[in-house]
Design brief:
Order of helices and strands: HHHEEEHEHEEEHEEHEHHEEHHH
Radius of gyration: 23 Å
Distance between the termini: 47 Å
Structural class: alpha/beta
Strand content: 15-25%
Number of strands: 12
Helix content: 40-55%
Strand order of the largest sheet: 1-2-4-3-5-11
Largest sheet: 6 strands, mixed
Number of helices: 12
Length: 414
């Protein structure tokens, strides 16, 4: 395709559509294989090997173990890392959830990303741009994208994009989509063991401290913004009822749609945990950010408009932008979106509206025929976005201007 032809979105979309359709059986098989063998974060060895094998079958060498992470992956159209040209990174995820497998649909995310990369790579390479596929481990539990950022994996990337599956048959409001940021706060209370019946006065009950902390966080929920969320679990409640627990632990998630509020709310939770220790005569060992913080997603509307155009051309209805978020999930793609212009549209898989991610029934949807149709369409739209970004100076300028107006590149600083 010539540069002149590449300036026509219709011409780009037609060539990509043919390429993605040829890939359909392989993408469906990849989604199914990941579904059949789900692996949690940082353990995705078979998953990343399958992705690398599929890329190799199409003549693409992939580096497994990139960025110092065993299950990260990098593939690129540029053999020379110093090659010039606009650089778009397509992001893949492939970790599963404990116990419920791919109930967040990361098998679909991986198939979309691989399909988009393989469809777009020849066009981007032939027209002087750069395209990368970055496989990011442990989105659910480890902040793989932030770890890759810290390793310099996005230093030469100009824009990035991925697609996340969701419920229903349509898409979420992609033009105004945001997510909350999230920080984890782990706490272990240390008390003193004693016989719960024979000499309870000698004990200092660490479980009481956890329960006090949990109830206090619940009370704090009454006095936070509608866009904020607090939730947690008790991870260790003691060994036996007749022993005053000398050790007990909990893990809390703190979420907010604004970075400043995320910091402030975390400080309030830490104060609650310290108060629980004081009330129970125990010590509190508090670990803030055992996993890198996830920042609120900042969707680039200029890039998303190109995605919307390509996705709508494949017969999908795009809803109007939603109202400001009232809380919700988090993703480490938010960290990438604060570093470079990014998109993260949601993709309906054709299932019931009330079957949402993080429910076992959602995993089953990800391998049905309707989901395969959706992921093929999403791969085509993401590929079209990548190609247009690398070949259209006007789109790059619009994306860059919007990103600069939002404050430009920013990273989490402790």
């Amino acid at each position: 395709m010539s540069a002149e032809a590449a300036s026509s979105p219709a011409a780009v979309d037609a060539e990509i559509a043919a390429a993605v359709e040829r890939l359909r059986p392989e993408l469906a098989r990849l989604a199914r294989e990941l579904y059949d063998q789900p692996e949690i974060g940082f353990e995705e060895r078979a998953s990343v090997a399958r992705i690398a094998a599929l890329l190799a079958a199409h003549g693409v060498d992939a580096e497994v173990g990139a960025f110092g992470l065993d299950t990260a992956l990098r593939a690129s159209t540029a053999a020379d890392a110093a090659a010039s040209g606009p650089h778009f990174a397509i992001i893949a995820e492939y970790d599963a959830l404990p116990g419920i497998g791919h109930a967040c649909g990361h098998n679909v995310i991986a198939a979309v990303a691989v399909g988009a990369f393989l469809a777009a790579a020849p066009l981007v390479a032939g027209l002087g741009g750069r395209l990368s596929l970055i496989g990011t481990p442990a989105e659910e539990n480890g902040g793989g994208k932030e770890l890759i950022i810290r390793a310099g994996g996005f230093d030469d990337v100009d824009a990035a994009g991925m697609v996340h599956p969701s419920s229903g048959s349509g898409t979420s409001s992609v033009l105004g989509q945001r997510t909350t940021g999230v920080r984890r706060v782990a706490v272990t209370f240390h008390g003193r063991a004693a016989h719960a019946a024979g000499a309870p006065w000698l004990g200092r009950n660490a479980l009481d401290a956890v329960v006090t902390a949990y109830q206090s966080v619940a009370q704090l929920r009454q006095h936070i913004l509608p866009s904020d969320r607090l939730h947690g679990i008790i991870t260790d409640g003691g060994a036996a009822p007749n022993i005053v627990p000398e050790r007990a632990s909990a893990l809390f998630y703190v979420r907010s749609a604004e970075v400043g509020q995320l910091r402030e709310l975390t400080d309030r939770v830490v104060a609650v945990l310290e108060g629980a220790a004081l009330a129970t005569g125990t010590g509190a060992e508090i670990d803030v950010d055992p996993v890198p913080p996830y920042l609120p997603l900042q969707t680039n509307k200029a890039l998303t408009a190109r995605w919307t155009e390509a996705f709508a051309a494949r017969g999908h209805e795009i809803p109007a932008p939603a109202a400001p978020p009232q809380g919700g999930p988090s993703t480490d793609m938010g960290n990438v979106s604060r570093l470079v212009p990014s998109i993260h549209p949601s993709l309906g898989l054709g299932g019931p509206d009330d079957v949402l991610p993080h429910n076992a029934a959602f995993a089953e949807l990800t391998v049905l025929p309707a989901a395969v149709d959706a992921l093929v369409d999403a791969a085509a739209a993401l590929a079209a976005t990548a190609v247009t970004y690398t070949t259209d100076p006007q789109l790059r300028a619009a994306a860059a201007a919007e990103f600069a107006a939002s404050g430009g590149p920013s990273r989490w600083e402790d």
